[in-house]
Structures are given as C-alpha cells and as structure tokens.
Amino acid sequence: MDQLDDPALSISPAAASAAHAELYSGEQVAAAGAALRIALGIMPEFFDTHQLIEKLSDEIEQLRFSGRTNEEICSIIAREAGIEIAPAAIDRFYASPGATPRASGAPE
How many CA within 13 A on the CB side of residue 25? Predict the structure, then answer.
C-alpha cells in the first residue's frame, strides 16, 4: 500500500478543517509578539527603511503590477501606518521576491 493511501497516515477533511479554523491577522500576530517581548522585558523591534521595504516587498510588487506608483505606495503607507518614506527609497531598497538581498545601503 502506498503511504499516500494509508488510512493511518491520512487526516480526515473535518480534522484538517478544524486544524485551520483559527486564522489570525498580521496585526494580531504583531501585537502578540509585542506583548510577549514586553512581558520578557525585551525592547520592541525596530526596522530601518531598508528592512521595512524588504518586509513589504510582496505587497509593493503587487501594487506596482496593478499600476500603482512609488508615490502612491508611500502615500498609502503614510496614511495607514503613519510612516513617512520617500518614493526614491522604494527604488533604492526594493528587491523583487526571490532576488538576492543587497546589503543595507549597498550600491545598486
């Protein structure tokens, strides 16, 4: 019998569904992480512009694909997160997903 057909190794659809029933937003995960860091007496995490743009690279790529400009992307970030970044910073630090990351501030 193939392992994929072995009933002892399979999970019922109901069990699989129950295992994934709870979903959490990125904001919830970030808040939980911040709360745990506070409980441990650890400083909050901080990210420089380069790290911020790397973390948002998937979203930036999708917005660019949909026709949004760097100026529009920066406006969304400023309006929704209160983070002011220059549109040129996206050009400087953005790396398409799968690209080899550049060192912070490394020449293009």
Answer: 3
